[in-house]
């Protein structure tokens, strides 16, 4: 690769805040709300024109679809997201679980409302491109936007970019597997005869979670075998057999759908899976977006031909961006493991509990048993750099544990832990490494999070 040297220049300081949260997905929203509720000045920024992350930018609506009778959860902001969305008419009950499907489009407005009422300073269309580092501590970040290159100074920074951009750019060690999880171009259809479609699902397909392991190499816990799952694979397999759909290396068809509305919308069609994509590589992302849109059009062709009710269906919209399940895992002072998730791990520095639920990398375990594990503060505390925390899918852990903590409500949980820890550390005048975890836990408990 060829290089050029960029001349150094003065950069204006756009803002100075106590806590800067970078990335406004489930983790970032939770981090910003919980920090602001602790009474410190908080700014939330995102590279796109709306908050909500994978919910509003990709179109993933199943916020807590794992929740069944007997599931034990931390509560806190996870319930609040669903409650506020319901109150604003921005959610629908899910068919397979005891949870709400968040309306991906309306969630942009839901997020704005939550941010406004929490007194958070919002900043959209702004990309974090580097860290400002002094004496092994982060002091703020460098941003790029239509306004040019600007600095934002902050006493604490929380990286909720999903990819761990801030931490990685600031030199925090991370891991990234050679073979990352599939990416998906999520899409939504309109013009579907909902009744006809649902009758077909109920009478002909009768899909259960066992089908996941029938179609993919997915290991399940067994307890989910006979439970209903909104899953569509057969039409795509039939289309391949009939020569209607071409089997292309690196693209798989078949997966789940979200909601079916009386107006004929079928949302969150999560039925195209592309392998070999690295979402921290702009060339790879470009290829995936273009390949993904083509695959979606092929998928709609199959749905129209093989699925009753879809005969007159049309594309309603693609997600704003391809959906990424996995990229960097930031190295923290503790690396969570699948064993922790499956063995009810306990930690003195717990920032909240999460049910024994895994969905990722060929493993599906639904939390129907009441079992749960604790998440340690050290998993969101990056090595090497002080006053930086990470939250969401990029926290420290192996791929099996990531199948649990990448779930949106677990991202909310780690976000809430990070927001409260950042605020408490400021109020106590201690760094994020030195902060008294007991004080963080008691502040989290006041925000209705179950810690142990
Ligand atoms: C196709 C698909 C289906 C899924 N299905 C489910 C499901 O049904 N249920 C479930 O619970 N989970 C599901 N997941 C997983 C879940 O959606 C994600 O793991 C979760 O949203 C991650 O949350 P996050 O806050 O860490 O990151 P994100 O939601 O990715 O949010 C990151 C935010 O940071 C912003 N950002 C990124 N980089 C920068 C930067 N440099 N500067 C400024 N802003 C930046 C982004 O624009 C974004 O808003 C799915 C994921 C995918 C891709």
Notes on the protein architecture:
- The chain is an alpha+beta fold.
- The protein has 2 domains: 13-176 and 327-446, FAD/NAD(P)-binding domain (3-Layer(bba) Sandwich), CATH 3.50.50; 183-324, no CATH class.
- Helices cover 31% and strands 24% of the residues.
- It contains 13 helices and 23 strands.
- Strands 1, 2, 5, 6, 7, 8 and 23 form a 7-stranded mixed beta sheet that branches. Strands 13-14-15-11-16 form a 5-stranded antiparallel beta sheet.
- The protein is globular, with a radius of gyration of 22 Å.
- Flavin-adenine dinucleotide binds at residues 22-28, 45-48, 53-54, 57-58, 60, 62-63, 65, 127-128, 160-163, 165, 184, 186, 270, 323-325, 392-393, 406-408, 411.
């Amino acid at each position: 690769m060829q290089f050029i040297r960029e001349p150094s220049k003065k950069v204006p300081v756009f803002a100075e805040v106590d806590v800067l949260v970078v990335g406004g997905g489930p983790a970032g929203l939770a981090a910003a709300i919980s920090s602001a509720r602790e009474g410190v000045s908080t700014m939330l920024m995102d590279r796109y024109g709306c908050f909500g992350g994978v919910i509003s930018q990709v179109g993933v609506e199943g916020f807590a679809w794992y929740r069944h009778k007997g599931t034990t959860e931390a509560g806190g902001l996870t319930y609040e997201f669903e409650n506020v969305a319901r109150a604003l008419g921005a959610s629908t009950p899910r068919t397979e679980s005891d949870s709400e499907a968040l309306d991906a489009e309306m969630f942009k407005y839901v997020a704005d409302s939550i941010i406004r009422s929490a007194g958070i300073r919002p900043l959209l269309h702004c990309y974090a491109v580097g860290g400002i580092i002094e004496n092994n501590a982060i002091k703020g970040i460098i941003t790029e936007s239509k306004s040019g290159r600007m600095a934002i100074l902050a006493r604490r920074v929380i990286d909720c970019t999903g990819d761990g951009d801030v931490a990685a750019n600031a030199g925090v060690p991370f891991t990234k597997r050679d073979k990352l999880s599939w990416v998906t171009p999520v899409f939504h259809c309109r013009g579907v005869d909902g009744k006809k479609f649902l009758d077909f699902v109920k009478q002909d397909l009768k899909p259960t979670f066992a089908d996941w392991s029938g179609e993919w190499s997915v290991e399940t816990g067994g307890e989910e075998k006979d439970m209903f799952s909104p899953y569509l694979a057969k039409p795509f397999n039939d289309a391949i057999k009939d020569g209607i759909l071409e089997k292309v290396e690196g693209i798989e068809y078949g997966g789940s759908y979200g909601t079916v509305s009386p107006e004929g919308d079928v949302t969150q069609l999560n039925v195209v899976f592309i392998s070999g994509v690295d979402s921290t590589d702009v060339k790879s992302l470009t290829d995936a977006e273009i390949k993904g849109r083509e695959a979606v059009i092929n998928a709609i062709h199959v749905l129209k031909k093989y699925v009753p009710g879809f005969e007159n269906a049309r594309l309603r919209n693609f997600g704003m961006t391809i959906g990424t399940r996995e990229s960097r895992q930031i190295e923290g002072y503790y690396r969570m493991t699948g064993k922790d998730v499956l063995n009810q791990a306990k930690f003195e520095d717990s920032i909240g509990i999460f049910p024994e639920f895994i969905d990722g990398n060929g493993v599906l375990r639904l939390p129907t048993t009441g079992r749960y594990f604790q998440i340690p503060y050290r998993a969101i505390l990056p090595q090497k750099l002080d006053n930086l925390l990470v939250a969401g899918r990029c926290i420290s852990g192996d791929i099996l544990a990531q199948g649990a903590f990448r779930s949106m409500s677990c991202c909310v949980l780690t976000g809430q832990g990070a927001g409260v820890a950042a605020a408490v550390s400021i109020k106590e005048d201690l760094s994020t490494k030195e902060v008294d975890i007991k004080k963080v836990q008691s502040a989290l408990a006041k925000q209705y999070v179950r810690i142990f």
